[in-house]
Design brief:
The structure holds two protein chains of two kinds. Chain A is α+β, with helices and mostly antiparallel strands. Chain A has helices spanning about 1-15, 30-35, 45-50, 105-115, 155-165; strands at about 15-20, 55-60, 70-75, 75-85, 85-95, 95-100, 115-120, 125-130, 135-145, 165-170. Chain A is about 25% helix and about 40% strand. Chain B contains two helices and twelve strands, in the order αββββββββββββα. The chains are: A alpha+beta, B alpha+beta.
């Protein structure tokens, strides 16, 4: 009963109507300075993200992959890399669709329990979600054989992708 | 005289059409959001009737369609014995399964675990027959091995799982219009097939004070709303 009551109270505080999150560029610039590429990134990447207004992160393992597919606008990007029997996507997004008061008990709990990076395996897809500079990022790995392929059963690949993220572009 | 005849024909046609829509709508029934069937399948968000994705189009082109559990329904691996094609799986009422017990972290589900989205069966137990459609204008942001992701103009990402990969009518980066066909519902999950259904989920960002979090939000109420419009002939 308490939960029902909490749910109703919580949701009445949800507010539809989204917007754009503020990117904290002050936390980006010192790091990006160190990460300037000595070899130019492929044109598919530089052209694809030229209008993106948030820091664009991609694993250094794939930053020079000329076969990547970039889908982007000023507020988000998705970069897909086709591997053998798997697809990896890197996504960043600075929009929000709902807002809720920070005093809302349910969302307060969710917000507090968030780890710097969260790994989740669901529907056979291994995902990592994290927040940097005030905006949200995701990495997904989807396999042809999700029940057998270690890339979609264990966190070794996704954590290595997360640990090798490098900022490859994006501007204020 | 001729105009009068045309007007009468139009009137009869419209009346029949409205009557048919009303009958379809009257036949449709659904259990409340958050009420899981069977109750042992998890603990849903009872009382959460908030429509997270307002005014979306229903993701399957034509009615009828049935939202219920693939796991706990007839023939499911935790459900009553029988065929996955049992008529019991292809009837109203709908049952929410967003918080159905799975091993996956779901912060909006009591207990912290749930299903991320809902499973939708098509009119009949046949694969490669029923089209999925874009729920809003947007862009195909990614296509995985068995997932098509549509990023809507609203900024929400809608994921369509288990379509036949050879049936896809869209490609990555393609702009799509609301109602545009995407592909055919199937049982495809790479080399390990699942039951014939569409897994549909909605990922969006919720701003919590000065922080934000990306979450899979409950789609059930949005889909009930969309389905009613589809039945009324106004998808």
């Amino acid at each position: 009963m308490r939960y029902i009551y909490l749910s109703i109270i919580s949701l009445s505080i949800l507010s539809a109507g989204g917007g754009v999150l503020d990117v904290d560029w002050s936390t980006v610039i010192p790091k990006s300075g160190q990460q300037k590429a000595s070899v130019p990134y492929p044109k598919v990447l530089t052209d694809g993200i030229k209008d993106v207004h948030l820091p664009v992160y991609l694993s250094s393992q794939y930053a020079y992959d000329k076969n990547m597919i970039v889908v982007a606008d000023k507020n988000f990007y998705t970069i897909s890399i086709d591997l053998k029997d798997a697809v990896v996507t890197f996504q960043g997004d600075k929009t929000f669709q709902e807002s809720v008061s920070p005093t809302n008990p349910e969302f307060q709990k969710i917000s507090k329990s968030s780890a710097p990076v969260e790994y989740v395996l669901a529907e056979g897809i291994m995902s990592a979600t994290f927040n940097r500079h005030g905006v949200n990022y995701m990495i997904d790995i989807e396999c042809e054989e999700p029940k057998k392929d270690k890339r979609c059963r264990e966190t070794s690949l996704i954590s290595s992708l997360y640990n090798t993220l490098t900022m490859v572009g994006g501007r204020p | 005289m001729r105009y009068l005849l045309i007007a009468m024909i139009l009137f009869v046609f419209t009346s029949c059409s409205q009557k048919s829509s009303t009958e379809k709508l009257q036949r449709f029934s659904y259990t409340p959001a958050g009420k899981l069937v069977p109750p042992t399948s998890g603990q849903g968000r009872i009382g959460d009737n908030y429509i997270y994705a307002p005014a979306i189009r229903f993701p399957i082109e034509k009615a009828p369609a049935y939202i219920n559990s693939q796991v706990y329904g007839v023939g499911g691996y935790l459900g009553p014995r029988g065929s996955l094609c049992s008529p019991k799986n292809y009837q109203y009422p709908w049952h929410d399964n967003y918080c159905e017990k799975r091993g996956w972290k779901m912060p909006l589900c009591r207990g912290g675990k749930g299903h991320q989205g809902v499973d939708i069966r098509t009119a009949t137990c046949e694969k490669r027959k029923y089209y999925t459609v874009a729920v809003e204008d947007g862009i195909i942001s990614s296509i995985g091995k068995y997932t098509v992701s549509l990023r809507g103009k609203s900024g929400r990402t809608y994921r369509y799982l288990h379509q036949d990969p050879h049936s896809l009518r869209v490609h990555r980066g393609e702009h799509v219009k609301r109602g545009q066909r995407l592909g055919l519902v199937s049982n495809y999950m790479g080399s390990t097939p699942t039951s014939i259904h569409l897994h549909f989920d909605i990922r969006q960002t919720i701003k919590i004070g000065n922080k934000s979090k990306v979450m899979f939000v409950p789609p059930y109420t949005s889909l009930v709303d969309a389905y009613k419009r589809l039945l009324q002939g106004n998808p």
